[in-house]
Amino acid sequence: MDYFVMKTDKRLRRLPQIQLPRAPFETENVKTSIVYVKEHNGLSINYADYLEKPGPMIADKFQKILQKYQQDMVFRRVVLVEKETGQQKPYYLMIPSEIICADKDESKYDVRGNVQDFVLDMEKTGKRKIFLAKDYNSQLIVRLDVAESVLRREANGIWFEPVKVSGRSK
Hints:
Layout: E1 3-8, H1 23-26, E2 32-37, E3 50-51, E4 57-59, H2 60-69, E5 74-82, E6 88-95, E7 98-99, E8 108-109, E9 115-117, E10 119-120, E11 130-133, E12 139-143, H3 144-152, E13 158-165
Parallel strand pairs: 2-5, 7-11, 10-13
Antiparallel strand pairs: 1-12, 1-13, 3-4, 4-6, 5-6, 8-9, 11-12
């Protein structure tokens, strides 16, 4: 099976500047958090369907799709609001499992122990379809079927980079 790192498309230049408050997400009874974003010097903001920072956030229209693929993943609703225009964009903060999944023999590390060339050990994923690779800068990794499902729905601003998988030469 193939896996991909899910990223925000680097070609988008005016992404929303977001600072998520920590406290609201630690409480189970909070259903939605409102977060204010600023315009870029009067220019409109490019809202990608996936935002990597400050945490993995997916557009409202993709939340149910991802929930079907990874039913135990937790989502927290976040509404991004532009103060100047009042425009609102609904997202979900994704809280997937964070696992150590690098193949220790095939991955390459620097002198500090940071992964330089990540190779996924598929057996360590536990058949998860969506997860954070703790030993790869907590990158969001998705299985091929998840990536295909997102792309079929004309995702805006989502980029998938292939991940090397142990036992294969790429």
